Amino acid sequence: xxxxxxxxxxxxxxxxxxxxxxxxxxxxxAIRKGARSxxxxxxxTGAGSGGCxxxxxxxxxEELLKQYGETWK
Length: 73
What we know:
The protein has 73 residues and is mainly alpha-helical. The chain has four helices and two strands.
């Protein structure tokens, strides 16, 4: 239980999209709700629409999709 709580806190403070300050928790929520591609995650969260145009967050989103996409299908 404590490990889950710590992970939830980390997910809320860990930014995936630095330009728009989108936390990992929001990306994971989009995947949990059915986003299955980088584009779908970006549309659901606003990630990738900042100053870098997704160059920094796209690889992180891809990794989260690999990690959680199959789990939450």
